[in-house]
Amino acid sequence: MKWMKRILSVVAIGLLLLSSASSLVNVFAQAEGLAFTAGTYRGEAEGFGGTVEAEVTVSEGAIDDIVVMGDGETPDIGGAAMAQIAEAVVNSQSLAVDTVSGATVSSEAILSAIEQALVEAGGDVDYLKDPANASQVEVAEQADIDADVVIVGAGGAGLAAAVEAAEAGKHVIVLEQLTVVGGNTNRATGGMNASETSVQEELGIEDSNETFYNDTFEGGHELNDPELLTTMVEHSAEALEWINSLGANLNDVSFSGGATNARIHKPEDGSAVGPIIVNALSERLEELGVEVLLEAKVTAINQDDAGVITGVTAQKKDANEFVVNAPAVVLATGGFGANPEMIKEYDATKAQFETSNHPGADGSGIAMAQAVGADVYQMEYIQTHPTTQPGTGKLYTEGVRGDGAILVNKEGLRFIDELETRDVVSEAILEQTDSQAYLVVSQDIVDGNKSLQGYIDQGDATTGETVEALAEALEIDPQTLKETVENYTSYVQNEEDTEFGRENMSSDLATGPYYAIPVTPAIHHTMGGLKINPETEVLDTNGEVIPGLYAAGEVAGGIHGGNRIGGNAVLDIIVFGRIAGQNAAAFAGDDTSASAVDEASEVSEEAESTEAAEEAESNADSAEESAGVSRKVSEEISEETSEEVSEEAA
């Protein structure tokens, strides 16, 4: 895979000012306060995934080049921030640049490292941080676009939908309001639930769709929409095979809270699942030539006088408003977990909680759909994740508990079966002193979980060679914590937790060193959203389909009921993202397949060789065939839905 073959920890930005370089440098040199000692200087700061280093080259009157490096920074979040901030600093000749939405910690570290380097170069920091001194960079206007399918949101569901629609031969445009793709999927750390999979079979794990359905229905307080739930469960194995075929390689399986059997599929080295899935989908879209417009915030879904969906209106950052004309719109804008006002509106008891969500989870897609008559469902069900960093909402994967961690309070005592559902564990933590607890793990758990090792490397954990040493570092009574761990070790060895009934106990915590990470609940997922059917068509307040409007991912409600089981969100975005993309392409059908044919024909007319002309003709034929394929997909899904209506799920 292209991304995986790249050196993810290094992003080198060589911003060479070509033909106009000398004149630009002269202009910069004339600016009062923009003066340096020529040379190359270095600075560093702590980012989200580790140390970020900046190598800055300056002449006497200009910032000429910046190279940013960062071990542990993901390519889609930290890597994107490196490239964008370095380019912005060089273009504006200023430190007064915006941080990258969704990558605030990485952005601030990059700017801090660049600032250190510029100080070493003799730069005037006050001058460089003053926005009034920044050079103005001209932003090109965005023209209106004609497409077959427009995807709103470039998280996991949007990317999956875009892949399917593009593979059906449609002209697809993806609009993302942030500066990076991935959305909340970038923050998904645990894995992807699926039942009756080939991976489970190879590992000797017995599981069934029926058990998966029952676990999810019970975990959702029996409030899940049965049709949506069945669709998700019945398509889970297929979804896993599909994402693995794109290079995700989720070939390890473990337990997660609320699961009867091991069914959460994850990378074998314990890496966070989200960035891997985003990379796999992004690479496929690159191969398909799908255009993704970043910093393009959709502000309205458009309809004609008859109420027919005609596309969307969007605003490009620092530029103009533009329209994407398309008969099919897929909303994949996520939930509203980062919108305090909406949280307060639907559950005031959670209004003061931190959030694990990225800033784009603002509920805007829900509001836009309501403006064209869409109904909403179960908006009052808002989930907290039990293990996030106090004060920041940084998420710690549920896989840590699945791999054997225990939870203790500030008195050194266990207080819950750690693998209960998220709502139950969250409520239990909130009842403890300061509404906090500690994830306690031993070295063997760390060795098998790359994400956990990352938390330790980032300074999130307290360490002790022995349980007593750990307790002293945490200011907990050593004898109490020692007894707690010894009791748990005996439960594992005797295969029975007589205190809390935990069934999956994969580590006995018998050998140090030991680590503890403080945790508290934060808003994590909004189960409510737009009302959809199993074909992902958005329904209006009368229960009727809004033709041409689809929704997938956290923007849709009803799939998870009153509480989401860990690992189901990743499955949700893949299953329903794919269905939305397939059905949006099928809806575009004959009306827009002609545009693809015309486009291919134009290429043929412009071709300068017989080979190019033949290839263009082939593209036209493929476009005609793809329309038929799309219709067939739609018919097959409709037939399956009617035959298995009791088994459809989300």
Structural key phrases:
24 strands; 6-stranded mixed β-sheet; 5-stranded antiparallel β-sheet; alpha+beta; disordered C terminus; 39% helix; 650 residues; disordered N terminus
Account of the 3D structure:
With 650 residues, this protein is α+β, with helices and mostly antiparallel strands. Helices cover 39% and strands 19% of the residues. It contains 21 helices and 24 strands. A 6-stranded mixed β-sheet has the order 11-7-6-15-24-23, with helices on one face. Strands 17, 18, 19, 20 and 21 form a 5-stranded antiparallel β-sheet that branches. A hairpin with a 5-residue loop joins strand 23 (537-539) and strand 24 (545-551). The longest helix has 39 residues, at 568-606. Mean pLDDT is 85; it is low at 1-30 and 591-650.
Describe the structure concisely.
The chain has 650 residues and is α+β, with helices and mostly antiparallel strands. Helices cover 39% and strands 19% of the residues. A hairpin with a 4-residue loop joins strand 2 and strand 3.
Helix content: 25-40%
Structural class: alpha+beta
Binned strand content: 15-25%
Tell me about the largest β-sheet.
6 strands, mixed
Alpha plus pi helix count: 21
What is the mean pLDDT?
A: 85
Catalogue the unreliable spans. Answer: 1-30, 591-650
Alpha-carbon distance between the two ends = 30 Å
Q: Which word captures the global form?
A: globular
Q: For the largest sheet, list the strands in their spatial order.
A: 11-7-6-15-24-23
Number of β-strand runs: 24
In angstroms, what is the radius of gyration? 26 Å
